[in-house]
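User: Please predict the structure of the protein below. I'd like the answer in structure-token form so I can feed it into my own downstream comparison script.

Assistant: Understood. Taking the following sequence of 209 residues as input:
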Amino acid sequence: MSSTKAADGRAPLATSDDDAGGEMEALVRRQLELIGEDADRDGLLKTPERVAKSLAWLTRGYELDPRTVIGDALFEESHESMVMVRDIELYSMCEHHMLPFFGKAHIAYIPHKRIVGLSKLPRVVEVFARRLQVQERLTEQIADALEEVLAPKGVGVVIEAAHLCMMMRGVEKQNSRTITSAVRGSFRADPATRDEFLRLAHGNGGVAR
């Protein structure tokens, strides 16, 4: 097994998907034993396999690239006003405790000579949400990717999420929500544009739900 790290900083578990899956299953089985469970009882026999497949799915964003996800869905257009997609569902995993956090992303941009297919904005969210994350970095990565690929006049991203690491352990605060934002270009430079974006993102812009 190679010790060379991947471009995203991760050390590969094994030389193939099958090897990685087998190694992950063995680790999960050992975890079950360490917490005092009988890994051979009926209900847990297939748990290592299920967890390995689940983790591969939940972290598939490491294998995705925003440029590839957007592809050729960029179109020449003279529209120069704000475009927003709000309430994009997202699911990610906190890298500190490997527990889920989930919520909604609100994304807006002001085009510069070209627009992007609207369905591509949720796909960009998936690229970065399906990794071990902290919400702060997730917000910045989405904004940076859209700025780089779209080259717009401005980009704004707001994420509102609930974190199970705060809800089912630790302080156990069930009603807490974390809100993060990232603004680029005209969203940062122009207070009026930023204010319009934030009002729309938080549902105060007169748009019916």
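That's the full token string. The longest strand covers residues 83-94.
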